[in-house]
Structures are given as C-alpha cells and as structure tokens.
Amino acid sequence: MSWQQRIDEALSKQLFRNRWRKRYVVEENSTRLIKIENKTYINFSSNDYLGLNQHPLIIDSWKKGMHLMGVGAGSSGHITGFSRFHSDLEKQIAAWLGYSRAILFISGFAVNQAVISLLSKKNDRIIADKLIHASLLDAAIHSPAKLYRFKHNIIENLIFYLQYLCSGETLVVTEGIFSMDGDAAPLNKINQITKKNNSLLLVDDAHGIGIIGDKGRGSCWVHKIKPDLLTISFSKAFGISGAALLCNENIADYFLQFSRHLIYSTSIPPAQAFALKSALSLIQQGEYLRKCLDDNISYFKLGIKSTSWRFLDSNSAIQPIIIGDDNKAKDLSEKLASAGCWVNVIKPPTVPIGTTRLRITLTSVHTFKDIDVLLEVLNEAAN
Ligand SMILES: *Cc1c(COP(=O)(O)O)cnc(C)c1O
C-alpha cells in the first residue's frame, strides 16, 4: 500500500467509524467562560481546576521572568538551558512533596515517556492499570518490557500478575486520579503489594496534584505513600504546562545522565519556570480555591443523582456521564451547547468501547448557578 493509500484509508475509516476528531478555535478563555465561534459558553471541559489560567500574580511573574531571562531557554538543560528559575522550581517542588529530587520536563506526556522508556529493559515487565493515560501506555507498548494490564483498580488482579515469576525487574504503573473516570486508585494497597514484591512503583498524579491533600500535595500525600517515581503535570491545576519527575538522588542522577527526553530537548522557558513558582505558592495557599472546588463537586453530585443518567462514582473534579452510544453523546453535547454549556464528548479509543461519555469537569471558579444551568439541561434531556 502506498503512503497515499494508507493515509486515505485511515482517514476514511476514521470518518466512517464516526471517530473524527474536531478542534474548535477558542477566541477567549477565562476558564469559567469560553468563547467559540462567536458564542460564549460556560466551560465544563477545562482541566484548569483551580482557575489559575488568568491569575494576575502568575501573569506578572511570567512577564517579570521574561524581562529577566528572555522568552526561551535557548538550549537543553545540559547545555545552557537550566536557569536559576528552573533550579529554584525543582528545589521547591521536591521540598513541597517530600522528595530529595525533582526534575523538570516539558510536558506530562514527555515525562511519562521518559520514565518508562529509560527504565524498562528486555526481560522486564510492566504491570499497569487498564485505564492508564496514553502517554504511559504508548511508552509501555513500545518498550522492550512485557506489558500486563490489570483490571481497573482491582488489587487482586494486580496480585495475580505479580505472582508470576519474572526474570527481569517489575514496574507497577497507576494514576492517582484517573483522567477519564475521575476515580482514585487504592494507592496504599498498591504501594504495599508493590514493595512486598520488590518492584518499583510509578504513580502519575496529573489530576490529583494541587487539588487534594494538605497544601495541595496530591493523591500520594492523601494515601500517605511515597512511590519510587511520581510524575506530575503543570498543565492541570497549575494552569500552565510542563511537568516534573519526583524521585531519590540516585534515580535523579540516572535520568540526568541518560534520559534522552532531557538531554535532546530544550527546557521550558525560564520565564515559565518563574511563573510556575508563583502558581506553586498559590496552590500551597490554595485552601480556599480547593474548598470552592469541593463545594462545586458536592453540589453537582447532589444534582446529578436525581437524574437517570449513568454517572461514575467520582469524588474528583472529573464527573463523567456515560452515554455509550456515540451519536446520543453528540446529541446531548449539542443540546448542552445550545443552552450555553460547553462539554466535550470523549469517544473510543480514548475510553473503552461502549463507554463514550461527556467528560464534565468542574473548577473552583464555577458558580452554583453555572452548575444549575448544566443540571437543568441534563435533567430535561434525561426524559
Ligand atoms: C494530561 C495528562 C498527562 C499529560 O500531561 P501534559 O502535561 O498535558 O502533557 C499525563 N497523564 C495524565 C494522567 C494526564 O491526564
């Protein structure tokens, strides 16, 4: 098959299967409100859970950082791209989460790829929760290690895989809060069983960091565990982008010496690192923002329970409504849009077949009135 045929076939198949992914041009975005194609919507699809996107302190820091260090890093961290701001941020993140080291990466996707691709060698195995994020899954699939996927959050199934002998090392992978279901992993038990097995544990807490735990320290803090490897993203609660790996001195050195994702990629701009320091301090003092978010989550849950929609038992900002059928989900999303609520549909392969959903996300900047508008449409559409 020629390149042309291959591309044409893939595209027509995508269209035919109703899987076509569409992007929308956002004209304005205040996290709570979003303007698309000249219409303003209440945005229920943002991961900016604490509404920091427009925070004046962060914007000022970014500007100040640019005045001091310019707009870009200029090179990878191993050449001249590792600034005072990067170094300070790494130290502050490590201290905040109780690790000896933090290493910055350009994105959550990159850090997950880096961790799995550097650590897993031939004869090793990776045992991962069935619902881990694409960034982890892709790296695991392409690694020389053998991949096993245990049933979502089912500890017995993890134990089942662990009991088989493996000639190499074992890496167990899960998330703090799952990105598409919004539920939490039983981290304490997973940590116990992983340790008992002398395996390494990697937790991706993209959706827990900043949101739960004392001073926003995330899922591991809540479950009182300290996994060998913790990855966090700054693209959700921090409202910006970038990511970090938390680990001990030894593993940090290993990554700095050998991770191609660090060595051959330009660091995030120093000004961004400076802005992230402001976001970090807002998150550390963010009890009020977290309380607003919690109140919104409770309010939404109370309302959705009285409808007949199938919702998942999530206590997080991610509140999916499972529709199943792609077209029905699209209809509901359109109904919500015409009432002024923006909720994206999430289809397979992002989620398992038959679980097409509206992934509603709540933030601390939504009002009860906003949520009322959403619930009202959902309530009407349920009948
Ligand atoms: C968003 C997300 C990532 C990717 O993070 P980016 O910083 O956006 O690249 C990784 N893991 C999970 C669980 C996520 O939800």
TrEMBL record:
<dbReference type="InterPro" id="IPR015424">
    <property type="entry name" value="PyrdxlP-dep_Trfase"/>
</dbReference>
<dbReference type="InterPro" id="IPR050087">
    <property type="entry name" value="AON_synthase_class-II"/>
</dbReference>
<keyword id="KW-0808">Transferase</keyword>
<dbReference type="Pfam" id="PF00155">
    <property type="entry name" value="Aminotran_1_2"/>
</dbReference>
<dbReference type="InterPro" id="IPR004839">
    <property type="entry name" value="Aminotransferase_I/II_large"/>
</dbReference>
<keyword id="KW-0012">Acyltransferase</keyword>
<dbReference type="GO" id="GO:0030170">
    <property type="term" value="F:pyridoxal phosphate binding"/>
</dbReference>
<feature type="domain" description="Aminotransferase class I/classII large">
    <location>
        <begin position="40"/>
        <end position="378"/>
    </location>
</feature>
<keyword id="KW-0663">Pyridoxal phosphate</keyword>
<protein>
    <submittedName>
        <fullName>8-amino-7-oxononanoate synthase</fullName>
        <ecNumber>2.3.1.47</ecNumber>
    </submittedName>
</protein>
<dbReference type="InterPro" id="IPR015422">
    <property type="entry name" value="PyrdxlP-dep_Trfase_small"/>
</dbReference>
<dbReference type="GO" id="GO:0008710">
    <property type="term" value="F:8-amino-7-oxononanoate synthase activity"/>
</dbReference>
<dbReference type="InterPro" id="IPR015421">
    <property type="entry name" value="PyrdxlP-dep_Trfase_major"/>
</dbReference>
<dbReference type="GO" id="GO:0009102">
    <property type="term" value="P:biotin biosynthetic process"/>
</dbReference>
